Amino acid sequence: MNDTILLDPADSVATAFKSLEAGKGGAIEKIPRGHKIARRDIAKGEEVRKYAQIIGYATRDIRTGSHVHTQNLEFRSVARDYRYATELRPVEEVSDSDAFMGFRRANGRVGARNFIAVIASVNCSATAARLIASHFDESRLAGFKNVDGVAAFVHGTGCGMADNGEGFEALQRVMWGYARNPNVAGVLMVGLGCEINQISWLIESYGIKQGPLFQAMNIQEKCGLAQTVAAGIGKIEAMLPVADKFERSECPASEISVALQCGGSDSWSGVTANPALGHACDLLVAQGGTVVLAETPEIFGAEHLLTRRAVSREVGEKLIERIRWWEDYVDRNRGSMNNNPSPGNKTGGLTTILEKSLGAAAKCGTTPLKGVYRYAETVSERGFVFMDSPGYDPASVTGQIASGCNVVAFTTGRGSAFGSKPSPSIKIATNSEMYGRMEADMDINAGEILDGIGTVESKGREIYDKLLSVASGEKSKSEKQGLGDFEFVPWQIGAVM
Q1: I want to staple 116 with a disulfide (CB 3.0 to 4.6 A). Which of 55, 186, 233, 434 is the partner?
Q2: What pLDDT was estimated at residue 340?
Q3: What mean pLDDT comes out for the span 457-470?
Q4: Would you place residue 497 in the very low, low, confident or very high pLDDT band (cuts 50, 70, 90)?
Q5: CA dihedral of residues 111, 112, 113, 117 (deg, nearest 10)
Q6: Could you tell me which of 170, 167, 235 has the C-alpha nearest to residue 497?
Q7: What is the pTM assigned to this prediction?
Q8: Residues near 332 by Cβ (< 8 Å), separated by ≥ 6?
Q9: Rounded to 5 degrees, what are φ and ψ at 373?
């Protein structure tokens, strides 16, 4: 491995493979590991390229060998050349079908886990939901070997909001999406009674019928918190034997739907973990599976690459409409799309949202973009699709699980301790140094690509195999540490009143 890594011959910057002192590796000043070094002189105002794409503009003259970062590189909006369905790569045909051991539901969908969910309609019923779920510790579940747990999904909204429009509709989609996620066998919805987000409206809108594995109640009708908790415990006790009847059986890999996430990204994300995850996605899509890219602000600046992979102009334009929505959303809230990258991303070598997005987009592989969905909307197509969401990981994953994802794949460079329920999350490290520090949290070390003992393809295969194993019941590192009870964060859109 050389002192620097060049991603494309057209690039005006390379990435320092190791920390460079002045006079070493062509550097004329200190270049931290993972940061950018100018390959040639760059004039003030000139575009700077990485991944053969514009990542920003020089704020002053930059000499060859200089450190290129926040002190001399700025974000500007870039005119995009949107083309549609011009770069459609056929999905690779496979001769052998892969399988995993999943829970097949009555509607034909397949779960990777078998949870009972206690879902709060409003923050006012959050404590009741938590008390009900916490009652079912390991000792009380010992007789139900096929049940993975009773989990509470509570949040900070549900009232003080409009009773229609984007925010209300998104919250109802989240609640219904969690209730019908294939990793959930039984559901108890708990409300207060007077909130805007009425459970009865949800039941009516989605045509839900209460039965042995779907129950609803509210605190006001049950005459207070204590009686609500007692009644809820009774309802779950009645569900457990029914949920326990589900058993794992061999199911095709086509039933796996993966939520693609990155958090705590660094400059290696777009070099190791994200391309490797992209290769794993190609392997899964070839099996007929589904991969769901999200985090709209974190594909901003790379969306023109995705429109070229859209199966039709209509699909591509849906993606651009979401980009335009976000530009307006940020403007009316007096923000900037470049508020992302975070301070940690910048310490890791990323400078602008354009640079971050180009690396993040590698997570989804190379297959055609089949559909674009609103936040928490049920995904109906198989293959590679996109779901609109914030870049904030908990809110984004919440939407993806509501859309139907039964497994989460999460890349990280700076390190992340994220986990989720009811869909297990595997963590993929971008570099070996962080993997060594946080091995208890990381399932895969894609940093071995930099170390020369792995390739994007071999690590992609390892990620794919891990997805099948975890979907079959192997616990991910985050599951072993008990993560997932506090990461349910519905995106709160609109005014709080």
Answers
A1: 186
A2: 77
A3: 98
A4: confident
A5: -50
A6: 167
A7: 0.97
A8: none
A9: -125, 155
